[in-house]
Specification:
By secondary structure, the protein is mainly alpha-helical. The protein is 17% helix and 0% strand. The chain is extended and about 60 Å long. It starts with 41 loop residues before the first helix and ends in a 24-residue tail after the last helix. The relative contact order is 0.07.
Length: 78
Protein backbone atom coordinates (compact mmCIF):
# COMPACT_ATOMS: atom_id res chain seq x y z
CA UNK A 1 0.00 0.00 0.00
CA UNK A 2 1.27 3.48 -0.86
CA UNK A 3 0.04 6.58 0.96
CA UNK A 4 0.03 9.92 -0.82
CA UNK A 5 -0.89 13.34 0.52
CA UNK A 6 -1.49 16.10 -1.97
CA UNK A 7 -3.51 19.22 -2.60
CA UNK A 8 -5.49 19.01 -5.83
CA UNK A 9 -7.41 21.73 -7.64
CA UNK A 10 -10.81 20.51 -8.85
CA UNK A 11 -11.57 20.60 -12.57
CA UNK A 12 -14.37 22.96 -13.68
CA UNK A 13 -16.79 20.02 -13.46
CA UNK A 14 -15.81 19.40 -9.81
CA UNK A 15 -13.76 16.25 -10.31
CA UNK A 16 -10.30 15.60 -8.87
CA UNK A 17 -7.72 13.80 -10.96
CA UNK A 18 -5.27 11.64 -9.01
CA UNK A 19 -2.08 10.60 -10.82
CA UNK A 20 -1.06 6.97 -10.25
CA UNK A 21 2.26 5.22 -10.93
CA UNK A 22 2.60 3.92 -14.49
CA UNK A 23 2.83 0.31 -13.28
CA UNK A 24 -0.61 0.61 -11.65
CA UNK A 25 -2.49 2.12 -14.61
CA UNK A 26 -4.13 -1.16 -15.68
CA UNK A 27 -4.87 -2.40 -12.15
CA UNK A 28 -7.94 -1.83 -9.99
CA UNK A 29 -7.01 0.63 -7.24
CA UNK A 30 -8.64 1.09 -3.85
CA UNK A 31 -8.84 4.73 -2.78
CA UNK A 32 -9.57 6.15 0.66
CA UNK A 33 -10.13 9.89 0.52
CA UNK A 34 -10.58 12.58 3.13
CA UNK A 35 -11.73 15.82 1.55
CA UNK A 36 -10.89 19.04 3.36
CA UNK A 37 -10.89 22.54 1.87
CA UNK A 38 -7.49 24.26 2.02
CA UNK A 39 -7.32 27.79 3.35
CA UNK A 40 -5.52 30.30 1.13
CA UNK A 41 -1.87 30.86 2.08
CA UNK A 42 -1.51 33.17 5.06
CA UNK A 43 0.93 35.38 3.11
CA UNK A 44 -1.80 36.25 0.58
CA UNK A 45 -4.24 37.21 3.33
CA UNK A 46 -1.56 39.27 5.08
CA UNK A 47 -0.63 40.97 1.82
CA UNK A 48 -4.25 42.01 1.17
CA UNK A 49 -4.56 43.25 4.75
CA UNK A 50 -1.30 45.18 4.43
CA UNK A 51 -2.39 46.82 1.18
CA UNK A 52 -5.75 47.87 2.61
CA UNK A 53 -4.11 49.35 5.72
CA UNK A 54 -1.07 51.02 4.16
CA UNK A 55 -1.75 51.16 0.42
CA UNK A 56 0.64 50.00 -2.27
CA UNK A 57 2.88 51.52 -4.93
CA UNK A 58 0.97 51.70 -8.19
CA UNK A 59 3.56 53.66 -10.19
CA UNK A 60 4.68 51.36 -13.04
CA UNK A 61 8.06 53.14 -13.16
CA UNK A 62 8.87 52.49 -9.50
CA UNK A 63 12.12 50.65 -8.82
CA UNK A 64 13.57 49.85 -5.42
CA UNK A 65 16.78 51.70 -4.56
CA UNK A 66 20.07 49.96 -5.44
CA UNK A 67 21.49 47.84 -2.65
CA UNK A 68 25.18 48.01 -3.40
CA UNK A 69 27.67 45.21 -2.98
CA UNK A 70 27.20 42.45 -0.43
CA UNK A 71 29.53 42.64 2.54
CA UNK A 72 32.01 39.87 3.15
CA UNK A 73 31.32 37.58 6.09
CA UNK A 74 33.77 35.24 7.73
CA UNK A 75 32.75 31.58 7.47
CA UNK A 76 31.61 29.78 10.62
CA UNK A 77 34.02 27.23 12.06
CA UNK A 78 32.71 23.71 11.57
Amino acid sequence: MNMIATILKPSPDGTLHVPVPEAWRKLPIRIKAELEPVEPPLAAAYSAEWRSAFGSITDAGFEPPPRGDARKVEPLDA
